[in-house]
Fold:
Amino acid sequence: MTLKKLTLALVLAALGLTATAQQTLRLSLDEAQQYAVEHNATMKNADLEVKKAEMERWKTLSSMLPSVKAGFDYQNMCGYTMNFGGGGSMMSMMPDSVTIGGVTMPISFPSSGSSNTSSGGGIAMNPSGTFSLTAAVALSGAQVVGTMMQKLALEMTDLSRQQTEQQTRSQVKNVYVSILVMEQTVGLLDSSLANLESLASTSQAAVNVGAAEQVDADKLQVQVASMKSSINSTKRSLQMLRNSLLLQLGADVNSTVELTTPIDDILSIEGAASILNTPFHIENNYNYQLLAKNEELATRQVNMAWMDFLPTISAYYQYSAKTYFGKDEGFNMTPPNMIGASISMPLLSSGTRYASVKSAKIAQQETANSRRQAEDGLRVQFNQLQYDLVTALENYDIQSRNLEVTQRVFANVSEKYKYGRASSLEVTTSSNDIIAAQSNYIQAVMNVISAQTALENLLNKQ
Structure:
């Protein structure tokens, strides 16, 4: 008994955790779009790409700044003694001073009585350690141009991120509207189904009392089944759209979404018609901006190729401190401070650098040609999207009126059928017409939204 209670408690706890994990999101269209911008995986990757481009720019900038490094070197010759041999005095064989890098330094040796000097005239090599600190900087024309190119790359990455955000908002809007239209359709079909079931019930009652034929009642029952199938199919499509919206939002797949913006607030025929009068400023289009930046990047590539003809300048400073760990100082020829500078000038590369410049110029011309062709293509696309929106608006007007008419026809035929002035065939035909009209209406709404969104994206009016 105790085991059963424990099992039941665990099951209830698991169900409680599952219910807690499920989240209900009540979102307007604007809130859904903003939620997707903040949580959508594609948007997150686009943001990371911008940050990565920033790091690449700083990496290029840091190559122009001084670098400092420190080091420590330890030497132990394991008791080795330096012996000059020849029987002569070692002191007489050594110079009094030494010149390194233009700096003359005196050399001092331990006295003859020092423990550092062996009886045979040698010098014991005591363990030593050297601490060094080096600061260096190098500058070339390629680094300067490379920094400019990284800045352009960062701007292009940010433009791509903005374009991704625009596409994300558009996709959310399309799915959001599709769900609203599907819900509206289910409501219309449910209303028609209730009316049709009432007619089928009336017809069967008439058959039972001998006032009608069974075939008429059977036709209506088949039509009821057909409409139920249509409703179930629409509901399955609706669930798929809800799952798609969760993916677009980047929300937990176990969450539920409640849409708070009515379809009439989104489907604005006046707003869709007004956008037809908006002039096309091509410089606002993201694709054009990316092409212009790409052309500018190609120009920088030409400058980068020219930088190979310029010299590279470098300079350094080094500090060294050598310490002996024995009783006496040993033989120390390490200068504590050292500075240096160099300039490297390219002279001959057998035409390699010149060929690189010519190749970069050809690539620049190709990029310019692509940009001009894309500009013409965008203007043609603008005209085509205007035509598509006009066609979608005209078809929406037709399908809206057709849906209204088919609903009135169905109601009229249904009323006549109740009084025997219409046949079951007319009822079947009118019910099929209303299903087709509702399907055409859904498609017309989606065509308007799709055409309007595409034109808004081209104009960058989101």
